[in-house]
Amino acid sequence: MVSNQLSVFSERLDNIVDFMFSKRDKLSLDKYDITKITNILDLKGSSIFEPKSGGAHLREFYLWEEPHHPNMTFLISNYADGLPNLTRFISQKGLIDNIEFVVYENELYRYRKLFKEGRERFVQLIKDARWEFFEEGIPLDYEYVENYEKKNKKDRLNSLMISEYLEAEGIQVDLLRNEISCGKYFQRLAW
Questions:
Q1: What is the pLDDT of residues 128-172, one digit of tens each?
Q2: Using CA atoms, how far apart are residues 162 and 18, in angstroms rounded to an integer?
């Protein structure tokens, strides 16, 4: 399972990149170096999978497609929060459904679906001083909503449930990041 936030868009990479370039001023794309990636090692060898804490570093993110997940584009960044403003902008302005999820075992479980029309479903279990559970929006058909009422908050959401939610959306968790067909690496060069 992914240990920092991963976003999945229900659209092809070329269409997302074209949309981003159509909004290049709004997204400040002139401040980014953009490199084509073609090998899964470009992703796996990156420190982007262990994001730095705090915000005092320049943004980097990957967008890629995988052959076993057709018509989906994945995004991961060097920010632990997964660049939610960027993913929300792409989803709502580009009219593209988006799923975001993160699993830090025994610390944080989060699943969010943003619909292109602006509707949102959000479920999270996080351990601060104690376990806190939060949900917002209309439950999706495949959710285990009966778990959300369990007395022990720690039992309300877990990595297996998130995997099953993703599989219901056509995302095979065991195949994530095994192979890429094409991708782009965005590295911000200046503030």
A1: 889 999 999 999 999 999 999 999 999 999 999 999 999 999 998
A2: 30
Closest CA to 143 of 158, 161, 155, 126: 161
Helix axes 84-93, 13-22, angle to 10 degrees: 90
Token output for 187:
């590295």
Residue in the block written with tokens 């370039």: 21
Q: How far apart are CA 30 and CA 25, in angstroms?
A: 8
Q: Using alpha carbons only, what angle is made at residue 153 by residues 99 and 160, rounded to the nearest 5 degrees?
A: 45
State how far Cα 111 lies from the chain centre: 9
Q: How far is Cα 79 from Cα 58, in angstroms, rounded to an integer?
A: 9
Q: Which residues contact 147 (CB under 8 A, 6 or more apart)?
A: 155, 156, 157, 161
**Radius of gyration of the chain from Cα atoms?**
17
